[in-house]
Design a protein that fits this description.
With about 160 residues, this protein is mostly helical. It is built from 6 helices and no strands. It is elongated and about 100 Å long.
């Protein structure tokens, strides 16, 4: 039985950019010039657009319900609402569960892809080993047995 991973899958660089940008916005220290102006005017908000702008990435990567980075979308939604993270209504609970399902599906797809890659690599290695075994057996059949044989070597000058 395969073991389950104790930790979540590793974060890729784009996801890391989004999370760092969100943290900078929470700390009110944006790097983007437009967001710095909004901060000075007291209009700095945390939403999908501002996080994407701060990260220097496309908004569509985190804006849609079934986006590529659902683990980034949820903290942005919580920071935007100023919520505690606990769903207050059944629709919020359903949304949260759907996002969790999306995360689990992406993790499952990634794990299945890794498993498939390892399976194909193992098959290839087994085929290669069989090929070498067969080549070795052919070579050994072509050579005469040398048990107890004495070979005399004559030099070409004699």
């Amino acid at each position: 039985m395969p073991r389950r991973r104790a930790t979540a899958s590793p974060i890729d660089p784009i996801e890391k950019d989004f999370l760092e940008a969100l943290q900078r916005l929470k700390d009110s220290v944006p790097r983007d010039k437009g967001l710095q102006i909004n901060k000075a005017k007291g209009r700095l908000k945390i939403n999908v657009s501002t996080v994407a702008r701060e990260a220097g990435r496309s908004r569509t990567l985190i804006a849609l319900e079934y986006c590529k980075y659902p683990r980034v979308r949820e903290p942005i939604r919580l920071a935007k609402d100023g919520g505690s993270g606990e769903p207050r209504t059944s629709s919020e609970l359903i949304d949260k569960l759907r996002e969790e399902i999306a995360i689990l599906r992406t993790d499952l797809k990634r794990a299945e892809a890794e498993t498939t890659a390892h399976f194909h690599a193992r098959e290839k290695a087994e085929r290669e080993a069989a090929r070498w075994r067969d080549a070795h057996a052919r070579i050994m059949r072509k050579q005469p047995a040398r048990d107890g044989m004495v070979v005399t070597m004559l030099s070409p000058r004699s």
